[in-house]
């Protein structure tokens, strides 16, 4: 279990963070090109 936490957990958290960021980003609406 310790080996799993040391070697694999950081990559799992990193991937999960990127996925969550891409899911939340479209809902933000703050960054948008509305220049006319």
Report on the structure:
- This protein has 36 residues and is mainly alpha-helical.
- The chain contains two helices and no strands.
- The longest helix has 20 residues, at 9-28.
- It starts with a helix and ends in an 8-residue tail after the last helix.
- The mean pLDDT is 84.
Percentage beta strand: under 5%
Tell the overall outline: rod-shaped
Biggest beta sheet attributes: none
The count of strands amounts to 0
How confident is the prediction overall: mean pLDDT? 84
* Helix and strand element order: HH
Give me the number of helical elements: 2
Low-confidence stretches: none
Classification by helices and strands: mainly alpha
Give the topology.
Layout: H1 2-7, H2 9-28
InterPro entries: CydS (IPR054381)
Keywords: Membrane, Transmembrane, Transmembrane helix
Summarize the structure.
The chain crosses the membrane at residues 6-27. This protein has helices spanning 2-7, 9-28.
What are the main properties of this structure?
single chain, 36 residues, mainly alpha, 2 helices, rod-shaped
